[in-house]
Amino acid sequence: MTALYIDADACPVKSEAERVATRHRVKMYIVSNGGLRPSQNPLVETVIVPDGPDVADMWIADRCGTGDVVVTGDIPLAAKCIEAGALVLKHNGEALTSANIGNVLASRDLMADLRAADPFRQGGGKSFGKADRSRFLDGLERTLRKAATLG
Predict the structure, then answer these.
(1) For the chain, how many structural domains are there in total?
(2) Strand 95-96 to strand 44-48: parallel, antiparallel, or no bridges (unpaired)?
(3) Can you give the CATH number for the domain in which 19 is found?
(4) Which of 2, 14, 31, 76 lies at a CB distance of 3.0 to 4.6 Å from 151, suitable for a disulfide?
(5) What is the per-residue pLDDT across 41-66, written as a single tens digit (0 to 9) for each?
(6) Global pTM?
(7) Are 77 and 58 in contact (CB under 8 A)?
(8) Each residue of 64-104: pLDDT tens digit?
């Protein structure tokens, strides 16, 4: 049976994911190391993991599998989940797959190296807007339908 795993650290689409999961009657796990208000929705389980590097990521990676959906902005976690057979979405609705995760990992590493080489470089990512939420909702809807055929 399909499950939806949310890497909740800095996730801007938790409430949107909950709405879609509820509509599909899919169990949803919101995984974090704390600071979240638990949902009253019986389909949503808030999982609080101990503090530590990548503990939430490991919890998700250890449990997800074929037919599950993972929402994360963490590219190494996405790679592990894809390897386990899960379908993965970024917060903006972009699907990460076995076909594109290698390039995404390489780009991530390159950008980390560039930032390390120039610590005075200012700037950040673009803000998360209404269009991003809309793309996420559409992407999650399609991905959950696809997952239902796999799991």
Answers:
(1) 1
(2) unpaired
(3) 3.40.50
(4) 2
(5) 999 999 999 998 889 999 999 999 99
(6) 0.86
(7) no
(8) 999 999 999 888 999 999 999 999 999 999 999 988 876 66
